[in-house]
Amino acid sequence: MATALGKIQSQLLAYVQMRRLQTVRTGELVHALGITPQQERELLSRLARRSLIARVRRGLYLVPPRLPPGGKWSPGDFLALTTLIEDQGGQYQVCGPSAFYRYGWDNQIPNRLYAYNNRITGERKIGSVTMTLIKLTDERLGATEVVKTPDGIDAVYSSRVRSLVDAVYDWSRFNSLPRGYDWIRTELARASGAAEEIVRVALRYGNVSTLRRLGKLLELEGVAEPTLRKLARKLTPSSALIPWVPTLRKRGTVDRRWGVVVNYEP
User: Fold this and answer.
1) Beta strand 260-262 with 242-243: parallel, antiparallel or unpaired?
2) Domain for residue 79, yes or no?
3) How many domains is the chain partitioned into structurally?
């Protein structure tokens, strides 16, 4: 059995190399290798269990261009993510802790890849790549930048400013407040025009709570009143107050303009 598997495995790798394929699908090998559908299923399943190929979903597998040293293989993060989302006809952008690390705000390497997308929600694992996928509407995807990876893949990240806004918007998912306020302060000091860009992106991708919290922060940082008014105009008067840092007790100075309880001393 092991000898037969080794022969078919060699045929599979030769087929992949000859056609420069990154993926194979169920049914593709039946005619290419002259095997039955049952043999194909067993071959793909066994190779995936041995970490020689990586299952993307039922019937779709990522394959190495050549057998790696040590006999085990896993796709890179972006090959796994891009293959999964493109198979669904969707779009993605890397976000949250993965973006925070990339931009140098957090020095802890995430143990998984976080990505907004418009197709899938939940946890996925492809080879050794673990992903947290967060489904958004098409309208909430955007403000991105593309980075070419060493293996030639176009990796799509949320932009610096979008990531800062999401640190406030998605604080509960990313555990990013109050740290995110310090990141925004750093960005304001680093880049001229940062306040205007943060406001623009917040108005496009934020919600009311995000605008309130950012408004208070930008006011404390001395941002010009015309810029602050762009945020304030989107807020309707309300007696309901939210904590400026939602993970802390709702106790502190009340700011009626922004509708927040300032429960954190920056």
Assistant:
1) parallel
2) no
3) 3
Look up residue 35 and give its two tokens: 């095997």
Please write the tens of the pLDDT for every residue from 28-58.
999 999 999 999 999 999 999 989 899 999 9
- Tokens matching residue 186: 């750093």
Q: What is the DSSP string of 171-220?
A: HHHHT-TTHHHHHHHHHHHHSTTHHHHHHHHHHHH--HHHHHHHHHHHHH
> Taking the model in full, what pTM does it have?
0.93
Q: How far apart are CA 237 and CA 138, in angstroms?
A: 30
25 membership: H or E segment, kind and range: strand 23-25
* Whether residue 176 sits in one domain with residue 148: no
**Residue whose tokens read 């960005």:** 187
Question: In this structure, what are the phi and psi dihedrals at residue 158, rounded to the nearest 5 degrees?
Answer: -60, 140
Q: Which helix (H) or strand (E) holds 231?
A: helix 225-232
d(CA 132, CA 75): 16
Q: Which domain holds residue 153?
A: 89-158
pLDDT-derived band at 2 (thresholds 50, 70, 90) equals very low
| Average model confidence (pLDDT) across the chain | 94
